[in-house]
User: What shape does this take?
Amino acid sequence: MKTKLHSLCIGLAMLGGVHPVLAQPALGIVATNNQVILFWPITANGTNGVLQSATNLISPNWMSATDAFPVNYGSQMAVSVSNAASARFFRLSLVPPTADGMAFILAGWFTIGDTLDGESDAIPTNVYVSAFYMDVNLVSSNQWAGVYNYAIANGYSFDDAGAGNGTNYPVETVSWYDVVKWSNARSQSAGLTPVYYRDAGLTQVYTSGDLAPYVNWGASGYRLPTEAEWEKAARGTLSGQRFPWGLTIAESQANYVADPNPPNSDGYTYDLGPYSGYNTNFDTGSVYTSPVGYFAPNGYGLYDMAGNVLEWCWDWYAAPPYPAGSPYLGGTDPRGPVGPLSYRVLRGGDFVGDAYAARCAYRVNGGLPDYNAAEFGFRCVRGL
Assistant: This one.
């Protein structure tokens, strides 16, 4: 094994004759049996490294290594690649948040659901999710208002104007129908192709009324995350954890309702409080949301993936026995059951919900798509 420096500010390695390149972060390499393990540290801004490969160092066509799926091991990400394949170079390309405030979420398999708390409608199974971008923050009241005004001026109509405690607080009191139309308006205002349409031919952009739209999944515009995308992002590269950061929750980590002290406790030993009731940072006689980005981000650099406001997802809600297409049946890029059903999925917990509702695996089944509430908000995603 030879080691050398390279002028590119990336990690670099080659299978066969192995040439790891020191960088920030460095891409390490270990040979074992008939495969090679490549690994790199999780960065301060989240797991924003994309493993790419090429057969020639000077190639202009570095491609994502789609046959190598990263797995989280504590403070490291790692992939294994077979030595049987043709020799090729690997590099780690860092992906910073985009100009529109989105983080890159790596493609790969993960376990959706868990068995930690006997969640009967979140039976764990393995799901593959393609890479995508997600809003680092919840859509704020100020952000909502800007797109909303554009939409009204361009023929859109909404059931509700939305609400918020301030410009840097999450928008709330928004229905599923309205956030889907708003996502289309956000796309058009940014010069991107809308995702949601009124017709199967994808010619009439969904701008008004309450309906289950047709979807152009390949469009460049903004949309709601699927339930599988949301949970993969919420887990922040960790696996087997109750929350985006670990197994317990405390006032310093999220805006939720705590009740850790007997005899009033609901028995959630993972709720460390230490307060009892609404988060004391924001409860000043009335119940408040917290500003977007107030708490520490998860491993993908995403804020408020637990608590503050519930987040609308694309999928229809279904409980066992799951219909075909449910993310809990496994597979690649599941988008939920074919509707219409009664409810759309909400995820993430909220400022009037307890620790139980803030868990990564918790699924809210009360989201009638025309309903809004002070604890309902959202964030957008985009495909590559």
Remarks:
- The chain has three helices and 20 strands.
- Helices lie at 141-153, 176-189, 227-235.
- The chain has two domains: 11-96, 99-384.
- The chain has a mean pLDDT of 85.
